[in-house]
Amino acid sequence: MSTSQKLQEHFLTCTICTEVFDNPCTLVCYHTFCRKCVVNYTKTKPEAINAKSLLCPFCSKMTKVTSPERSIDEWADDVKPSFVIRGLLDSFGPGCKDTKNCTCCHREGETTPATVWCSVCDDALCDVCARVHSRISSTRHHDTTALTSEAIIPRKRNIKCKEHKDENIKFLCKDCKKVTCHTCCVIYHRKCESVVTLESELPALTSQLYARMEHDIKSFGNNAREKITLMENKLLDELKEVSEKHIEQLTADLKSVEISVHMYRQQAELIDQALQSECDMDVYEMYQGCEAADVDAVGDVDVKKRGRIARIMFRQNEDMLSRALDDLQLGEIDVQYDGMVDTSNVLDLKAVPVLQGTISVEVAGDRNTVYPTDVKVLPVNGTDTVVVTDYDNNSVKSFYTRNKQRRHSKLSLGGSPWGITRLKHNQVAVTVPNTRQMVTVDVNPDLVLLSNIKTSKQYRGITSLTPSTLAAGSGRCVDILDMRGNFLKSIKPIDSGKEIIDSPDFLCTTRTGNILVSDNCSKRVLCLTAEGDFGFTYPTTENTTLGLPRGITSTSTGDILVTDYYQDTVVHLTESGQFVRNILTNDDWVLHPHGVCVDGRGRVYISNYLSGEIKVFSFSNTV
Which pTM does this prediction carry? Predict the structure, then answer.
């Protein structure tokens, strides 16, 4: 089966009509259907009609419509498909073009291999047709690309007119500032003076859009520089004011010292004269005068010491600087989530698992029973390094192989560590709930403590959202924190009038930036957005099939793995929270599993909590 057929069958097929999406729309629950299908289904549900909402046939979640006063048939017109579905349809849906044969020759009933693609004509051309194409005045300047191998060219997306639904939007009326179809031009824009094709206007629109974005970015940058310059000038003025005051004081003190030195010089001359006179009375009077002068001098020094500036210092206030820069709101670019390992080419969860090895977490110096709580794998200088939190021995440990010798490193902490997440480069963050702190650790591959971060709560589950934010679980909520542990906001989603988070002991981040929560009290897996919206829950019924969910991870393909402590299993879920199968059981020596993670070579790591071991499995024939 070709890639296009697989995509159509598994991702581009409506579950209602079982056909490839026709004018798709994606509801708030992220499920996608044909517009007609979801509208027809909604018509059969009076509760959805009364609520002025589209009803999802899959999860029964309602999507509010923007114009409920319109007929039900038009409710779905403003619901757009997700950019992923739209891109897949453009590239692999029905009507996408392949470049194997010449389009022009095909129209004449001939089959000729194509060598060139014209992006303007949207056609594949053979050598002969390409030469003709380059000689015609209307096409000689078209952009063409040589086809070195068979490729799939995305089709041009046609936007339909809202009024004349069978016609494509092709024109722009500059007078009315509206895009129109051919019929709209004839009916509504006959008297307009400037009606042009969208294709002819596209370069100008693109240039204007780029210029506008460039202007906005420069404007933001100028505003930031102005604010920084104002703050710089204010600090320099304060420094100048303090410096001038200090100089005035020093000048006055220097003048006073000069006067005192002059007086002492005169006094020394008088004393010398009295001694040379050899008159006892002159010596006695001089003695009395010197004693009185010493008292006055001491009093004068005490007065001068009061209020004297000792030194001037500039203290940089990092919190004030951080808040000032945050308030500038220059924008944000967020592309990749740290810790997401690309396993799409090697991890085949349909394959039979093979036990590759066992790592004993117990090392020399351990005084208590070893309980590996969570596990992560980091590639450090080409070496896979397994990092484990050992709860009862108050330590984080790393295990790796160097020169064909198995080695380890142990970092003792001031409390019992629990959750672990990968940060940028070779760093991890670890929660220590009983001491209300998080620690950051450098993995090189030996462990080095970087920082201790005090937190306001006893956080257990933790995951990295962006390079500057973390999500941490405590109590009945998930909090968003910055990298210094400062509280940003709290996520407490509500479903059917009830808070759905009970005990978020393990967290992970999906490839789309959502937060997966393994909740051991409710015995469910929850999917939340960083904005606090509720995605899905597994299982969806009140009678859960999970015994005690613990560790959880998500692969680059969207697959979800969660460990079940009581049932000795590792459960495989789809990206939308649908059960696939138990990929590991106690028959595979999975006993009371806690943490779970995957590496970039198709291997799954499971921490057996009671046996104190890490089990390593492969799911790929390439390993």
Answer: 0.49
